[in-house]
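Support request from a user on the community tier.

User writes: "When I paste my structure tokens into the form, the page sometimes reloads and wipes my input. The last time it worked, I copied everything first. Here is what I submitted, just in case something in the input itself triggers the reload:"
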């Protein structure tokens, strides 16, 4: 498959012609041939021509595709100088005599057959005048083959033109919540709830940010967790991993002596108040306290928590510069400043419920009487302004970090009020459908994230007063339940398929037994016939003995009877041989039946086990809640961190990361599952573990970072050319790659995902480029397809070839496995889809009617249906059991190259040459369009 969008970028242009021309063609050249000789440049006399630098690249570009070790057309191999010197054609290159060297004569069109011919099928071009001049000078100079440099020539990569945004790769998580899509040499991550990208993968080198690859991204894979992405490009494969947090150093905190902990809005500093009335402020990343101040606390605050389960609520508000902190309990406020010895005292008259710094000298507080109080400091004097906002207690006030003057107040019933700085009043801005127990305002003040008493996570849009419930249950528990249910359904499919196989094996045994019964009756008949013939022979002998005078007639009769007896004995022997063969066949069939029955029994046992696992997952899911009361909105609202509410097993209370769109990103196992979020800022959180330790975790600017690169675009690489296809083993531990130089032997290699080490490289797996690699659902077999029109099945454990499937008449471009493990589907540049019986290796159905090549296909969940893309910008769904087309949807993308689906086949992601990808269901309904655009 030659991709139209990259034809101008291909490194190899192939040449196809026949070299097997006799010497007489040289002697008998016509005047017309001489007249058509190509123009040849003149080189300066002192111009030195080296084979490795000047000639080899020309041959590689225009000739080697058809004249190499695997395809020596006309007995000519032009891969190396050594191969040229040892060619079967003595006059291929005659040192010092270019006018007599067949290579130069045919390349310059001075003799027939010219190379390349006009009708070559690999888009080969004639040699340029300069290339012919270099070839001629090299032969004139003695055709010396110099030593090529050991390392490939470094390439100076230029930025890919912005107009080249072809989508070659798309990959979707099993549950369909995330999609990785390539646009040219860039990779973006999208969720299922918004067309806005979550992140663009990039290489960060100091202050410079580069695209994920230098050249087009050819294929992508994102794992089921959403935490690992693998991308394939020119001579390399890159492994990316999600690493949203890194631990940071902080001073040790004595929790037994701690009354309150808080973090400033940016998350750069935090403050701790001890029972001794000591306020300590530290910078995240430092192991010492930045500054400390002591003041007198009421005695009841020092001991109250030891005596009651409902202690006085103490709050700290640390300003963003970490130069001052407000400490509040009951109606009292204390202002502690780094530059002032005395502590400032404020009294709100009513019990305070919330507190926020607006600016350096501007503090906002809320009361249990429905008031919001603004405190302003002017030359060390604080003034208070009261605003009656609600008829009941204000639950919380929240300011937007990007616009601190933007303030939202919320009461216990879920009523919201927005501060209008122009009118200096609070204005009602709607009501939450359910009261919140905790809330956090996005940095721009547009979105209010909330948690509810039931443990649900929700998002409220301030502008249009709309509410969206993001999740009720722990997403990790929900994902586990969905996976366990899927595994149960897949096992159910396998049981059904195995029951069919077992039934067929039983039918085969019955048929063979019936055949043996028939043979036994036939033997019985033939035995009787033999006995009858034997009796007649005996009678004839007696007749011959008693009637000597009729000896001649009797002997003739005896011969006839003996011949009939021989025939009967032969027939009986043949029947007995058939019986023995049938009995052997019966034993084989009975063994096969026993094997199928054992497999069926194991599958049924496995099915019951998976059902039990799914039932347990259902219980855990049902008892879980999406989040505890406290959560964190970070990095200007682009990430939300939650901790699942208590379940029956606290060790299963996982941390989750969400995108601003409400898409669940992933579980975060690196955070302590038994921990509790005690403070958060825009870029940092503090988590307290049950072991008494408090840890700081800083949010990295990028969610995904490059973990490892296998190969290189320049310099040594295990890949000869573009890596066109990748697939990850169901275990997640193995990576298969496919590619190779066009019109040369293909490549497929097996790698260890954990460290990128090579496990196995199969020599010459295909006669041409490998376009597709796919592991079977059980991980035991790898299927590969290539430009040589072949599909090959390999044993993953040993790397041995199991069988080859033949039938396509052009490149095999895509492979998909049926979940039942009995069926394989392939797409081809011959504009067909073939469905194969894996056991027999025969194509059971060929689906036609495509206008152009078939580029990608996937099975629809565990159904006998295929999703198919091709070069005509249409997404189709076909049945594999009868070939019927069920969906025919025109989508954006022009020439479609990319296709993937979620686990159950309810959603697909398709993309193509126009740089657009579409989220579409199996009925053809399109929900989202993704493009590079602006992030």
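"...and here is what came back when it finally went through:"
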């Amino acid at each position: 498959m030659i991709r139209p969008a990259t034809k101008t970028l291909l490194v190899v242009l192939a040449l196809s012609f026949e070299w097997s021309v006799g010497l007489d063609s040289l002697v008998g050249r016509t005047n017309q041939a001489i007249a058509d000789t190509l123009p040849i440049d003149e080189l300066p006399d002192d111009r030195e021509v080296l084979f490795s630098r000047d000639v080899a690249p020309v041959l590689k570009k225009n000739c080697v595709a058809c004249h190499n070790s695997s395809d020596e057309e006309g007995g000519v191999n032009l891969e190396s100088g050594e191969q040229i010197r040892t060619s079967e054609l003595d006059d291929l290159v005659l040192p010092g005599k270019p006018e007599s060297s067949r290579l130069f004569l045919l390349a310059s069109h001075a003799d027939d057959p010219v190379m390349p011919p006009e009708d070559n099928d690999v888009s080969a071009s004639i040699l340029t005048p300069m290339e012919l001049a270099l070839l001629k000078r090299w032969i004139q100079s003695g055709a010396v083959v110099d030593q090529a440099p050991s390392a490939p020539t470094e390439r100076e990569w230029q930025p890919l033109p912005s107009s080249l945004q072809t989508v070659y790769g798309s990959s979707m998580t099993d549950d369909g919540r995330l999609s990785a899509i390539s646009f040219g040499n860039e990779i973006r991550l999208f969720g299922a709830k918004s067309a806005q990208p979550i992140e663009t993968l990039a290489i960060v080198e100091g202050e410079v940010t580069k695209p994920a690859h230098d050249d087009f991204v050819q294929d992508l894979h994102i794992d089921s967790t959403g935490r690992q992405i693998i991308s394939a490009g020119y001579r390399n494969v890159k492994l990316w991993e999600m690493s949203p947090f890194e631990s940071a150093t902080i001073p040790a905190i004595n929790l037994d002596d701690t009354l309150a902990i808080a973090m400033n809005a940016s998350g750069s500093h935090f403050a701790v108040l001890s029972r001794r009335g000591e306020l300590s402020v530290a910078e995240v990343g430092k192991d010492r306290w930045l500054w400390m101040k002591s003041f007198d606390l009421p005695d009841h605050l020092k001991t109250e928590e030891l005596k009651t389960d409902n202690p006085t609520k103490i709050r700290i508000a640390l300003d963003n510069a970490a130069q001052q902190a407000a400490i509040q309990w009951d109606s009292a406020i204390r202002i502690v400043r780094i530059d002032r010895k005395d502590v400032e005292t404020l009294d709100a008259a009513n019990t305070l419920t919330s507190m926020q710094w607006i600016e350096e000298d501007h503090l906002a507080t809320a009361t249990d009487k429905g008031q919001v109080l603004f405190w302003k400091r002017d030359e060390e004097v604080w003034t208070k302004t009261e605003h009656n906002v609600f008829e009941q207690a204000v639950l919380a006030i929240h300011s937007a970090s990007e616009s601190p003057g933007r303030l939202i107040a919320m009461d216990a019933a879920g009523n919201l009020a927005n501060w209008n700085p122009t009118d200096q009043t609070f204005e009602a801005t709607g009501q939450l459908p359910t009261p919140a127990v905790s809330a956090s305002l996005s940095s721009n003040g547009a979105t209010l994230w909330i948690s509810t008493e039931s443990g649900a996570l929700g998002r409220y849009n301030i502008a249009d007063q709309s509410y969206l419930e993001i999740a009720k249950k722990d997403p990790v528990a929900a994902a586990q339940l969905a996976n366990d249910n899927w595994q149960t359904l897949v096992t159910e499919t396998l049981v059904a398929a195995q029951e069919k196989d077992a039934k067929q094996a039983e039918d085969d045994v019955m048929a063979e037994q019936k055949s043996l019964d028939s043979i036994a009756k036939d033997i019985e008949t033939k035995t009787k016939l033999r006995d009858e013939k034997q009796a007649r022979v005996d009678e004839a002998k007696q007749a011959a003995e008693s009637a000597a005078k009729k000896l001649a007639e009797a002997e003739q009769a005896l011969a006839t009877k003996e011949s009939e007896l021989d025939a009967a004995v032969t027939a009986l022997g043949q029947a007995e041989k058939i019986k023995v063969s049938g009995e052997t066949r019966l034993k084989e069939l009975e063994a096969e039946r026993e094997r199928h029955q054992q497999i069926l029994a194991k599958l049924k046992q496995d099915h019951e086990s998976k059902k039990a696992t799914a039932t347990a997952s259902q219980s855990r899911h049902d008892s879980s809640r999406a989040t505890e009361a406290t959560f964190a909105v970070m990095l200007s609202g682009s990430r939300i961190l939650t901790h699942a509410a208590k379940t029956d097993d606290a060790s299963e209370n996982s941390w989750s990361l969400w995108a601003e769109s409400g898409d669940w990103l992933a579980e975060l196992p690196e955070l302590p599952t038994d921990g509790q979020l005690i403070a958060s800022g825009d870029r940092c959180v503090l988590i307290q573990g049950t072991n008494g330790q408090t840890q700081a975790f800083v949010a990295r600017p990028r969610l995904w970072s490059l973990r490892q690169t296998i190969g290189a675009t320049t310099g040594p690489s295990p890949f000869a050319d573009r890596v066109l296809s990748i697939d990850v083993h169901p275990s997640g531990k193995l990576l298969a790659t496919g590619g190779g130089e066009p019109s040369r032997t293909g490549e497929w290699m097996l790698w260890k995902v954990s460290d990128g080490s090579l496990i196995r490289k199969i020599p010459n797996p295909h006669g041409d480029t490998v376009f597709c690699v796919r592991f079977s659902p059980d991980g035991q077999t790898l299927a590969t397809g290539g430009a040589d029109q072949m599909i090959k099945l390999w044993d993953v454990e040993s790397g041995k070839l199991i069988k080859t499937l033949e039938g396509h008449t052009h490149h095999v471009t895509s492979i998909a496995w049926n979940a039942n493990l009995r069926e394989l589907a392939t797409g081809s540049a011959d504009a067909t889809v073939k469905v194969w019986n894996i056991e027999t290796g025969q194509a059971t159905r060929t689906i036609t009617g495509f206008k152009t090549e078939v580029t990608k296909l996937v099975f629809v969940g565990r159904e006998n249906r295929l999703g198919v893309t091709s070069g005509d910008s249409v997404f189709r769904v076909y049945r594999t059991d009868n070939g019927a087309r069920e969906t025919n949807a025109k989508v954006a993308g022009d020439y479609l190259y990319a296709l993937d689906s979620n686990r159950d086949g309810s959603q697909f992601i398709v993309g193509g040459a126009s740089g657009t990808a579409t989220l579409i269901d199996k009925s053809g309904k399109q929900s989202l369009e993704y493009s590079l655009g602006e992030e």
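Agent notes: The reload is a front-end session timeout and is unrelated to the input. The domain at 247-473+631-674 is CATH 2.130.10.10 (Methylamine Dehydrogenase; Chain H). The radius of gyration is 40 Å. Escalated to web team.
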